[in-house]
Amino acid sequence: GSPTGGGRYEGGWVGSKQHGVGTLTSAGGGNVYVGGFAHGQPHGAGTSTAADVSTYPPTHLPTYPTYLAT
Hints:
By secondary structure, the protein is an all-beta fold. Helices cover 0% and strands 49% of the residues. The chain has strands spanning 8-14, 17-25, 32-38, 41-49, 55-56. Strands 1-2-3-4-5 form a 5-stranded antiparallel β-sheet, with no helix packed on it. Strand 1 and strand 2 (17-25) form a beta hairpin. The chain is globular and about 30 Å long.
């Protein structure tokens, strides 16, 4: 599948995977992750905002939705 699974990613890439700093928005626009990526996955400091507008601090990121590449 695509690296964003239908979502939108803006940021750094290495090959076909998100890497560096970027913003990933789910296909429906309800979930947004802003922060670091490594090898196509959220990594390091970042903030995840869920559809219900709850925000998780960088040290307590939830399991990320399945629209990320695996």
